[in-house]
Write a structure and sequence with these properties.
3 helices; Beta-galactosidase, Chain A, domain 5; mainly beta; 6% helix
Length: 303
């Protein structure tokens, strides 16, 4: 863990275990702007024209992994993260703390720990209420992936009719969702959404993901995101704890915590686990079963 320059920002922090690396910004944020194998591609998107910029009242996407609060409301959700963040490094963990958002009264914090022996990152998102009144919000973790890869979301286990009569989970669509879009593959076991730089439109899907994982595959690199599911929680967007959005520039793999009432001075915490692997993932479901599912089995905290 050391300070470094990256993308025009002079004050970034690089974490590496010799096999994978991530870079977090402190001139803006909190953001993780890079994640990948050492010497390899950045699996996170970078908006090149925005790298190195700071300040200003306009929200910039920048790229990388960001921390939002849900439900999505403009301008509240789009509070800019263009200013410096406080940071400290302790015991192998990087702590990042944003100044309180003046438009929301919310303070966002990240705690990032990279496993010394495995390609595993634990990232804790903490949302603190610095207002004098209670608020309702949900933590929202968005990993903005680079182009030309495919996001893979698991379907619930198949169970035959009439032995099982109740629905398995909600599948949520937006006004701009086009289910006929060829970027989608609606499979028996998986939903796949491909990023296509030649596409002309935006698309999005959300779901109640009780299995707690999503993956992104690109030319032999595999990113797996693990996140919790709480059956007692109230999730926004008609019950989504996982969402996937794409446009001609990016594809986002998003997870959400439950909606909470946060009292003045209180906070909520939300943890994701990230894993990187090297593997070619086929597009057919038998190939996904054979190549991706064993990696999902390995992508568990403590394994």
């Amino acid at each position: 863990m050391k300070r470094t320059k990256y993308g025009g920002w002079k004050n970034c922090i690089r974490l590496t275990n010799g096999k994978i690396e991530l870079i977090a910004t402190t001139d803006v944020g909190p953001r993780v702007i890079r994640l990948g194998f050492v010497g390899g591609r950045n699996l996170f998107k970078e908006y090149r024209e925005q790298l190195g910029k700071t300040g200003g009242s306009k929200w910039r996407p920048y790229g990388g992994h960001r921390f939002w609060h849900a439900p999505e409301v403009d301008p509240r959700t789009y509070a800019p993260d263009n200013e410096k963040v406080g940071f400290k490094m302790r015991g192998g963990t990087l702590f990042l703390a944003q100044e309180v958002e003046p438009t929301t009264g919310i303070e966002k914090q990240l705690e990032i720990s990279l496993d010394a022996n495995k390609n595993h990152v634990r990232i804790l998102h903490r949302m603190a209420n610095r207002n004098s009144w209670a608020i309702e919000a949900a933590p929202w973790a968005l990993s903005v992936m680079t182009t030309r890869g495919v996001a893979i979301l698991p379907q619930e286990e198949y169970r035959p009719h009439p032995q099982y009569l109740l629905p398995a989970r909600p599948l949520v669509l937006w006004h701009y969702t086009d289910m006929s879009d060829p970027r989608f593959t609606w499979g028996e076991k998986y939903i796949q959404l491909r990023q296509d730089p030649k596409a002309k439109t935006k698309n999005k899907v959300g779901m109640r993901n009780t299995l707690g994982w999503a993956a992104y595959a690109l030319d032999g690199d595999v990113f797996i995101k693990r996140f919790p599911f709480d059956p007692a929680a109230s999730y926004v967007d008609f019950g989504c704890n996982a969402e996937c959005y794409t446009d001609p520039d990016i594809i986002e793999i998003e997870s959400l915590g439950g909606l909470s009432r946060i009292e003045p001075g209180g906070c909520v915490e939300y943890v994701e686990h990230w894993y990187l692997f090297r593997a070619d993932i086929p597009s057919d479901e038998k190939g996904i079963d054979a190549r991706l599912l064993p990696l999902v089995g390995k992508a568990r905290p403590g394994k």
